[in-house]
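Why run this: before we spend reagent on co-expression, it is cheaper to look at a predicted model of the complex and decide which construct boundaries make sense. The entries below are exactly what would go into the expression plan.
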Amino acid sequence: MTKGVMMYRLYDYLPSGNGYKARLVLKQLRIDYQLVEVDIINGGSRTPEFLAKNPNGRIPVLEVPGKGFLPESHAIVSYLADGSELIPADAFERACMWQWMCFEQYHVEPNIGTVRFWVHFLRKTRAELGEKLIEKKKSGYAALDVLEETLRDREYLAGNRYSLADISLFAYTHVAHEGGFDLQPYPGVRAWCDRVASQPDWVPITAR
Amino acid sequence: MTKGVMMYRLYDYLPSGNGYKARLVLKQLRIDYQLVEVDIINGGSRTPEFLAKNPNGRIPVLEVPGKGFLPESHAIVSYLADGSELIPADAFERACMWQWMCFEQYHVEPNIGTVRFWVHFLRKTRAELGEKLIEKKKSGYAALDVLEETLRDREYLAGNRYSLADISLFAYTHVAHEGGFDLQPYPGVRAWCDRVASQPDWVPITAR
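The model came back. Tokens follow.
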């Protein structure tokens, strides 16, 4: 393993929950890296230079020296955390971790994350967003219902210890209020957010 | 490893691309399993019995004897293929595999898969679907553009050998025409579909 001596480069936008997953893992695993900020609001992820790194035109992208460019937050964190305690050693628990990470990409990020982006960053109004906002809020709350049901009697999502699953789900859930979601009816989710935020070497979402 | 002597049970709906990923992996790894068909069109995945298996109310779900119920197609295939040649041994190539599987869940399945479900199974018309259909077709074609760009000079998606990434992306891409997508302008994608369908022990989407 030469990971420790290589300097990773992370192409990222600080308020991004997807980028935050990578930055939190880098911090908690104490891996040095260089941050390259990309202004996604003004087209920074759609330039020819950026598209050569990720044809899908999205951050985060991890540049791995000698290997190449790795897009997709969950691919990045699974690569960085490979062999660490952030990934359960047990095969079934590891699969449960992936289950929650898939759930996040399908049900949380496109609803809670996208609404936050529209409302908090693009400053779109309810009138402008119309039916799209109503549908995404409904789907976002449905995802929160599943999370609450799960976290009512469990401390962490996979294998009952802190893992990439918690990092992944925490990223957009803990800032859901920025998109107008009310977490008050979700005491299990709120207690779990507090547990994640009290982990060693935890950093807030916009930390470098 | 006691996997070989356990009998897995797969809760599934045969035309589902997500279910197909699991069935294709089970076939290609020659793992015995019992299929339990769930009539998702008529609420079969929203019964109290089913919700006890997956609170998210979706197929496929893998029942692992002595362990529990595992939802999410990509969690299921990563569990089944753990340690097999369907997952690259190299850490970076494995991360590239996950990158494509994340891409599938975010850009392919919700667009190409969902349009196929609306048009081919629910028999919704263009007029009924309106703007939603136009948006999803646009996003689906954008995903196909990224795939074509990648497959123009590559035989497989991750590490240049057949892996879970190919299975995952193939599932909805090869039936995209059922949702009205035209693959004619995508020669790289079509050639790759042929390569996947010529793998040993390949079975078509509705095979048990």
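Chain A has two domains: 3-80, 91-197. The CA atoms of residues 113 and 172 of chain A lie 6 Å apart. Bring this page to Monday's planning discussion.
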